[in-house]
Amino acid sequence: MERTTTFLLVEDEPNDVALVKMEFAKAPIDLHLNVVQDGAEAMDYLEGKGEFSDRREYPLPNVVLLDLKMPRLGGFELLKWLRTEAPAPLRVIPVVIMSSSSLKEDVERAYSLGANSYLVKPVSWADFKERIKALGIYWAWHSQTPEATRR
């Protein structure tokens, strides 16, 4: 029995959102993608508040794909909230940072706040597409996510 892997993409760059959607749609497995534009909207989604209250339409993600630089509430702030202040079942959701920053300080800060992986967005469109495809397949086929995310 094939399971659906749900991703929550937290990204404010429309081109990156379009690329992730396109590559996930072409994947040979069932990948479900929901998108929010910043950390504040991601908090509402994860807690099932407001427009995100219907868990059939907005299921808890198996994996969060998180940009760092966003308006209102950035990726570092969301990651800190998710790992320390969010309701306990949400704290175990794996988080993959997807950032254009390869700064050592950003990578170290992300991991110290509890990121599970850090992916640098390459400048090349072809390289980015390959990384997105590999990321989707890895988390859907090769990784077991915590029970809390499979409600």
What radius of gyration results from the CA coordinates?
Answer: 14 Å
Order of helices and strands: EHEHEHEHEH
- Average pLDDT works out at 88
Q: What is the rounded distance between the termini?
A: 17 Å
Tally of structural domains? 1
Label the CATH architecture: 3-Layer(aba) Sandwich
| Helical residues, percent | 25-40%
Q: What is the fourth-level CATH superfamily? A: Response regulator
Strand proportion: 15-25%
Q: Give the overall shape.
A: globular
Task: Give a quick set of tags describing it.
single chain, 151 residues, alpha/beta, Rossmann fold, 5-stranded parallel beta sheet, 5 helices, 5 strands
In short:
By secondary structure, this protein is α/β, with parallel strands linked by helices. The chain has helices spanning 14-25, 39-47, 75-84, 104-112, 125-142; strands at 5-10, 31-36, 63-66, 95-99, 117-120. The protein is built from 5 helices and 5 strands, in the order E-H-E-H-E-H-E-H-E-H.
Give an account of the 3D structure:
The protein has a 5-stranded parallel beta sheet with strand order 2-1-3-4-5, sandwiched between helices. It has one domain: Rossmann fold (3-Layer(aba) Sandwich). It has 5 helices and 5 strands. With 151 residues, it is an alpha/beta fold. Helix 2 (39-47) runs parallel beside helix 3. The chain is 38% helix and 17% strand. Strand 4, helix 4 and strand 5 form a beta-alpha-beta unit. It is globular and about 35 Å long.
Could you give the topology of this structure?
Elements: E1 5-10, H1 14-25, E2 31-36, H2 39-47, E3 63-66, H3 75-84, E4 95-99, H4 104-112, E5 117-120, H5 125-142
Parallel strand pairs: 1-2, 1-3, 3-4, 4-5
Helix pairs in contact: 1-5, 2-3
